[in-house]
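Re: flavin mononucleotide structure - here you go.
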Amino acid sequence: MKIVGIAGSPRKNGATSRLLDITLKEIKALNAQVDVDRVDLVDMKITACTGCDACLKTDCPLDKDDDYPKIVAKLLQADGIIVASPVYFANVPGILKNFIDRSRRMKMNRNQLKNKWFGTIVASGLRNGGAETVSMLLATWALSQGMLPVSSMGNSVIENPLVITTLQKALKEFRKPTEEDDIGDKAAKRLAERMVELLGMTKPK
Ligand SMILES: Cc1cc2nc3c(=O)[nH]c(=O)nc-3n(C[C@H](O)[C@H](O)[C@H](O)COP(=O)(O)O)c2cc1C
């Protein structure tokens, strides 16, 4: 069983990366047999889609000059995929949008990502700054690829099923991106539990 985490932030040591780390480490802690892989998009060269439509019939012509084929190879092997994104103007940052747009070839080539479990992790600056919107954008992308979006499920009264961390603690009080967030961190662990459970690697509680 393999799970691939995609770190979509241009900032390597920020809140997005921290939360993805929590989830991936927790997956390993729950079952050391799981092959956990992480791709930091900021380290990869991913050229923006030019809309040439070649992917409707053949392979993407941009593949020969960048790192996207390496990511595709990992995604095709994965049973579960987790995409972590910061909120940039209530959307994903450009590097992640390039990743999403280039994924069209997997959809057009007989829905190659179909039936893979999919999880989201989102980090925002402001408490109501668009994190839920970005979570939904990612889930919509996953649905369009035939993937199966998974929420983090904990105490149904006090734990929200979306994995979100927010720097804003109160109106004028912000945590550092590297600082713990009990709500977001717990949700990140819960996503790990759910992924492991759904992949049949532990018994459902
Ligand atoms: C270009 C840019 C746009 C941003 N737009 C938003 C926004 O719309 N809403 C919000 O809550 N935070 C916004 N932020 C703040 C980031 O979401 C926040 O700093 C988050 O922690 C970034 O993730 P990172 O720590 O992984 O880099 C923005 C930051 C940048 C750099």
